[in-house]
Specification:
- The structure is a homodimer.
- By secondary structure, chain A is of the alpha+beta class.
- The first copy, chain A, contains 8 helices and 13 strands.
- A 7-stranded mixed beta sheet of chain A has the order 8-10-7-11-9-12-13, with helices on both faces. Chain A has a 4-stranded mixed beta sheet with strand order 3-6-4-5, covered by helices on one side. Chain A has a two-stranded antiparallel ribbon with strand order 1-2.
- In chain A, strand 1 and strand 2 form a beta hairpin.
- In chain A, helix 2 runs parallel beside helix 4.
- Chains A and B meet through helix 1, strand 2, strand 3, strand 4 and strand 5 of A and helix 1, strand 2, strand 3, strand 4 and strand 5 of B.
Chain lengths: 307, 307
């Protein structure tokens, strides 16, 4: 297959939806945004051997994950997706050794583009002597005039997560998760959100990022951290807690609201879960508090790429 | 260096310029575009061993090229850059074996961000066991209400290129070229442009893309094709012609205008060069015409990635 053939296939597979005016096939894509739109842009690169193992999974899941992690970032910016740009580095012999592989990859991408109504509006595809890499750049527009940011946590706020944590990588949840658009849509309509982010590297890594951005600290209640059923029940309590804090790739939302707003969460539909895990403090320490009230520093952990 | 350290360095290095409201450091970047802005998005992924050889060049040139090829795409969409998103896949040992390497890469990117006044507003960085890869996604806004596209060539139009072709890879021009913003700014202000694209894969590959998109053909005058001084004078005339048609990575603009507009090009500043190379035809063939008036099909060639 040549580059021209691929472009023709993609242009047929991915229809151009507003506000995209011109999609695949020219030097760039053209979008006509509504006046006063808040444009949000996110990007993530996924690599064979780091974020998935290509020889162990359906390529549709690799394509799906590459888009889904970006969708999670958009949800964390209280935005809905409008256009994706997908770049691929493909091992030179892959279309011979694994025919149909590229089509399966795009099947996984197409599934999400239909579910969330965005256009795959461009990209770049190259063959090389390296492993498979995929970069997705996703454009969205805010669903609220004031996009809640990491820096918006206020001392006294309560902290919540939208679901249980840990065990995502071992159980394949990192390939199949649903970005939390349902949760953020309801929250934006019903609650005055302060800080917001998604949990990609584990609460132990991501929570300090929110606290750093907002010049605050936090006290997390150890007993309130929701440990996912994917974390083995056979582990010690400490190991289970550590998995919930540090495994990463949960793609749940972490947010803060003032204590006065907390009551409103009780009116949420049953299928949404908002789990209180602690509170924001003026003191910049980040502490874990056990059932007896003793605190210790939140153990550093979770996933950070060494560079 | 950790991912957090890198983000802090980048946030300091790349200031947030309007219309970017929020740059590096959150789940995504936030932009507030002027009303009626035409948003243009381009993306290109560059790979070690395909687009440059990392062990042979200054990393600043790799970073520069990765952004410059995207700038060329924006020029070909009659747009100016506003925000770049840069994803890197970095060989795991690189910061040990080549200290300062990542900083040099960003030096090359910073040079262009200052020259063309755009914000590096986000990205993603991962270490892996593969070679170096860089993806740039660049957002721009149209400098004209009607962005000229590949499909806009009309039978009877004259075809022009903005500079000489060939020899780019052998002489390093592919690392140091200037995207043709000066040319496109003057053209947009002074001429009614029809079709427009940039030449990245060689005229023999790119011209047929324009003709296909606009349902036209073309007759190219062999003698008028400008052969770059980078093409060896020692080659045969046929080999020199072939180099100009097929070497690729020229990053000149190719455009069409009606014959009535041609005269206006004579008023362009001396530093801009607009070289007529042929004409657009209703007949869909793409022909090369020699000095004696004989025509033959334009030889297929130039660079297409096999996938």
């Amino acid at each position: 297959m040549t580059e021209n053939d691929l472009l023709n296939n993609l242009a047929r597979r991915f229809p151009t939806l507003p506000p995209v005016v011109l999609g695949i096939g020219d030097d760039g894509a053209l979008l006509q945004l509504p006046a006063d739109a808040q444009l949000v842009t996110v990007t993530d690169m996924l690599l064979d051997g780091v974020h998935f193992r290509l020889d162990e999974i359906d390529p549709a899941l690799a394509g799906r994950k590459a888009v889904a992690v970006n969708l999670s970032d958009l949800a964390a910016m209280a935005s809905r997706p409008i256009a994706a740009f997908i770049s691929l580095a493909i091992p030179r012999n892959l279309s011979q050794t694994r025919p149909g592989w590229l089509e399966r990859l795009y099947d996984g991408i197409e599934e999400l583009s239909r579910q969330y109504h965005f256009t795959v509006a461009g990209g770049d595809t190259n063959a090389w002597n390296g492993p498979f890499a995929i970069n997705v750049c996703l454009l969205g527009v805010g669903i609220t005039a004031h996009v809640p940011l990491r820096r918006d946590a206020m001392p006294g706020d309560l902290l919540y997560v939208t679901g249980a944590l840990g065990g995502s990588l071992n159980h394949g949840r990192h390939l199949s998760f649903q970005p939390r658009f349902d949760a953020i849509r309801w929250l934006v309509d019903n609650v005055r959100l302060h800080a917001l982010m998604d949990l990609s590297d584990g609460l132990a890594t991501d929570l300090p990022r929110m606290m750093l951005a907002s010049n605050t600290g936090a006290v997390i209640l150890q007993e309130s951290i929701p440990v996912h059923a994917d974390v083995s029940a056979g582990l010690s309590a400490a190991a289970r807690l550590n998995a919930a804090l540090s495994d990463g790739e949960d793609f749940e939302l972490l947010f803060s609201i003032s204590a006065e707003e907390a009551e409103k969460l009780g009116k949420a539909p049953r299928e949404l879960s908002f789990i209180p895990i602690g509170r924001v403090t003026q003191d910049r320490a980040i502490l874990l508090q056990d059932a007896s009230g003793h605190t210790r520093p939140l153990p550093a952990g979770g996933w950070q790429h060494g560079i």
